Amino acid sequence: MQVIPPKIKKILDKWNIRGLVILSLLFQTSLIFLAPMRKRTSKKLLAAFLWTAYLLADWTANYAVSQITKNQGKEPEPDDPPKNKKLLALWAPFLLLHLGGPDTITALALEDNALWQRHLFGLVSQALAGVYAVVQSLENALWPPITLLFITATIKYVERTRALYSASLDKFKDRMLQRADAGPNYAKLMEEYASRKKSNLPTEIFLTDEPDKHERPPTLVIPDRDLTDLEIVQYGYKFFNTFKGLVVDLIFSFRERDESRDFFNKLKPGEALRIIETELGFLYESMYTKTAILHTGIGTLFRLISFGSLLSSFFVFHRRPLKSKDFHGADVVITYILFIVGIALDLASMVIFLFSDWTFAVLRKLKDDPEEKNNSSIDFLLNWFLAFRKPRWKEHTCNGNQTHKVLSTGFLSRRWSGTIYGFNFIGFCLKAKVSRIHKKRNCNVLVWESVVSLFDLVIRRIKMLFGSIKNVNRSIRSVLRRWSKKNRMIRYTVYPIFLVFFAGIPEVFRVLWKYIDRIFSVKSYLDEIRFISREPLTKNQWEFIFNELKDKSSFAETPEVAKKVSWARGEWALRDSKLAEVDTLMRYIEKVDYDQSLLLWHIATELCFQKEDVGKMENLSKESYDDREFSKIISDYMMYLLIMRPKLMSEVAGIGTIRFRDTKAEAERFFKGRQIKDLRDMKRASETVLSVSTDIEPILVKGDRSKSVLFDASMLAKKLQNLKDSSNEDGKWKVLSKVWVELLCYAASHCKATEHVAQLSRGGELLNFVWLLMAHFGLGDQFQINKGDARAKLVVGE
């Protein structure tokens, strides 16, 4: 008995190689155009498609080569054209070319770069397999185009292997290490000193330190005007080459620190944002694409050779007469498709190559005189093109009738997602939808929100249905249990059948769902869709973060102070506020772990946010309203990082998951007991939490087994409600906004550099920008060289 019918098997045998070749070409086409989008968005659908295409592209090409090799050794079928196998041998180098991969993606994840040895082995093995397939087809009149194609395919595969090799962390670090520095020749100097002393000559050694930054002329001068779009890219490329060592934990000298800090102190916040955008773009391209190796002399030369070989192969093939009786018509068409699409994809790659930021930075160097205007036609053309990629800011009226400029760059022009995600604890406990502060009004957002609302409604209805079934099941079981005690027939017939079909089967499905969720994390994906909010970056929010770090950088003159400032978790902001309640609030920072501090201040911020009514919001000054908005957005963002992106917070998360679960359990029990869990009213829930008396600390009543901080946060919120600043206005939002910036900076400086780079392939995060901005301002522990070499002079007296 045959599982596959003979007719279908015959079709599969006839079209398997053709289908695999076409599928391989489709994967390459989709990767080259869709891969650049992953640095602009964090959409999981795009990530899933790229993951599938990336893995299947290599598998398809490898399997197709093996099928061609196998097919060459078979006896021809009676209805096959006599020379058709010789045409199929031409497809082998095409598949090797596909294995070289598109220029826009070499590594799906940072770990793929470490597998460059595997790709090198694959290069050798697949090249041998392709050669074997061709050798089997000899004598082959198509050997000239086949040879030219092998040149192109080998160059492409070598490019991919070299890109992976260069981006592997150990090789990336090796290339950045400078020559070993033995320092001044101490032994020689001391020998001369001892010799002169032995000769009874009056000899002294005078030490002269290297000049400090006030005595050194500035090495990087910023022009007294707005930077042009080309200069933004040029400065971004310069600082990328300086600070890419952050990825592999290299240290920097005081000269590099001072140069960067002095430069960024004179920048406008918007210009700093754009420079960091380009820096992160260069970092992404060097780690995940072929861009870095193509923008070298050798890389450009070999790319021209490979493209020339591909064109030559096509022309040689096209000019060679093909008799229809010798080749199958469909195979000839597929071959032409492979050539034409391959040439088109190479041309598309060249366009991407020519119009990348890397090309502009390498083509036009920074001018020695920054005040010199860019009057050349080339500079004008480059500035005109780069203007399409600059961030776009759009006026937006918030919920409190305040107007802000929000980042609204077009999808194809943006360099990162530009989105700040949020996760709200109280909203999650109530299963309530958190309203956005800056709600975009376009068709895409409305459609997405409608889909999410419908999806949320379906899930709620399903849960209600299962809850009703569970209650009915419990009632029936109770009745049958009573009857079975009185009636033996029911005890041995009806009751066991009920337990098996109406109690046992649902339990099996429940356990099965539990294991599926544990393996595939289905519930976490559903929670992301339902409960994660999205806010665009606002211009004044970035300016606020920039100015806060700029102020702190003025204190970071030594590595010790820089480390102390960058590791502040809110205490710096509290002491700077000069409030009478500083000592009371400080205990919620200094005497608790970082993850506990995050949860405490997040819940307290939300309680204060929901406490204020619309009328009070309208009476707030613009500065107070902005501080309130910043606090809310960063608070939700930090909770999103802690719960939904634990890899980014792995260094500081502690027992954050346990603490979150315990606090969630207490909040749900509290809301259920007050009959407000199903109302989904965050304002009423917050008021109910604040209404509970907290005269006695929760730990004195509950002990410390449970790690819940719900009512500790309520105590903190009540203390914040009473804060007044010097102008007798509500001062809690000014304090909260500064505390949250420090908590954000602490997380950014403690996140592993490799995790920052990994996030660039998922749309980027505000955390990545803060991390790089802190490095530019000299905040962190990367700057451990403070004085440099001392200059020793041996002076002999008379």
TrEMBL record:
One Pfam family of this chain: DUF4220
Name listed for the protein in its UniProt record: DUF4220 domain-containing protein
PANTHER family: OS01G0798800 PROTEIN-RELATED
Domain of life: Eukaryota
Keywords: Membrane, Transmembrane, Transmembrane helix
Keyword Nuclease among record annotations: no
Organism listed in the record: Arabidopsis lyrata subsp. lyrata
Sequence intervals crossing the membrane: 15-34, 46-68, 88-110, 292-316, 336-355, 492-513
Ranges of residues in domain DUF4220: 51-427
